[in-house]
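Run: sequence + glutamine -> complex structure.
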Amino acid sequence: MAKYIFVFGGVMSGVGKGVASASIGKILQARGYRVTAVKIDPYVNVDAGTMNPTEHGEVFVTDDGDETDQDVGNYERFLDVSLPRENYMTTGRVYQSVISRERNLEYGGKCVEVVPHIPEEVIRRLRRATAKAKAEITIIEIGGTVGEYQNILFLEAARQMHHQQPDDVLFVLVSYLPVPGSIGEMKTKPTQYAVRQVNEAGIQPDFIICRSTAPLDAPRKRKLSVFCNVDESDVISAPDIASIYQVPLNFEKEHLSEKILAKLKLRSRKKNLQDWSVMQRRMARAKTVVRIGMVGKYFATGAFILPDAYISVIEALRHAAGANRVKVEIDWINSDDYETHPAKVRELSSYHGLIVPGGFGSRGVEGKISAIRYAREHGLPYFGLCYGMQLATIEYARHVCKLAGANTTEIDPKTKYPVIHIMADQAEKLAKKQYGNTMRLGAYPCVLDRHSRSFKLYGTRRITERHRHRYELNNFFRDRLTKAGMRLAGVSPDGQLVEIIELPSHPFFIGTQFHPEFKSRPLHPHPLFSGFIAAAKQRAATGGGKIARKKT
Ligand code: GLN
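>> structure
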């Protein structure tokens, strides 16, 4: 019988429910079980592709082209597996299938009701994801916070599953225990209320994972146990730590995998977290710091800076830093800044590497182009991801090929030099206003030039990477770009689509039409990110953030 572990959050969002879910998956996988993980987003959006990343965070793209929540990225990174679209659902997606089934008369004339038909569809989807992964244990993270109106139907699905198979379904509440500065003491009350809220939904948590700035002490464990009806040993302390990759190891200090397996009536097999601990120690012990500037626009929400929109890029940098035995320090640079204060771009001299990640639209674009120009002219290692590749092409066209006003038609449809232009099939979709899930999405193969730096880094000619774009390098300009020194280092197997550009004369200048960050894993850092960090490390070693001297 397959087993299911539902994870939901109490008190507030953003306390690390995704990492907790991924870590639970990891420790069970380390016990030899086949584990998969599903994210449920309560939004009515059918997928994350139509949500603003500033509000919702990164859109994580799967191999099969689903536009999912960033937590799916956490599951992939921790479990070291690639997940299919079955592992993501939203309220919109669930309703969409119930409604289309109703239209096809599949309910045989019955009244179709929110309960039971919506939770039934949720359960059907969960079982399908489990079957597809052949999983012995499925972790299901329910987005949002308990007590919210919008996730009630998902909790109802969880309750029903538990009712149907009580020995196979387990509930974990990830809660937050504030330590208010004015009081100086960790408070358990909000968690007690959160447990009452899930109790109202007919659910009793088996475990409470207590997120806080500090470890949970014995008196508070006891208190939560008494008030929340959970054994003391099932109240798990989860204080803030330096790296998310430490979380599975911390859970194991509390013997969480054994406790979970016992409740699920599964045998406790030998634990193997060796690779993971080695990786984690390597990351933690690195001392040399490389400073990376990341120029984007999805950072600010009101008075706060949230780098969530670029989470996979950040993690990929950390994996690569671990592989290079350095620590990476990332600065978020708002590209608007370089437009209002062009001289500020000189601050880039203090960095060891520059990244321009994916993006859309015109805001901040000229600022990004100025930053790329600086990197190109000053030998600063540059890595452009998707939009970062397109903008690097524009920069090269304008300032090296002297095609003044060169642009992408995304921004300037009338440009004289459309070095980046819309892909033919995409133009039709935009004309029909078909925006949702219609970009060039998911994994596509790419063939590398044998002489390229990318080939050296990947160590193979044929690669597969994930995409999310509508525009591409305009083949009409290939000759002019290559004659001016740009290398088209990777193209689609039919040779039609440029996937990677490089500047061979530069210490490290690579732009990819795809998003390599989606495939980087802590146990398998991405070769291009590793190469980028190696170049940044080299720059740090040969004169810090100062302009590196050319070797003679
Ligand atoms: N806006 C660009 C395109 O649609 C780049 C997309 C991206 O960076 N993901 O092609």
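>> summary
Residues 547-552 have pLDDT under 50 and may be disordered. The longest strand covers residues 137-145.
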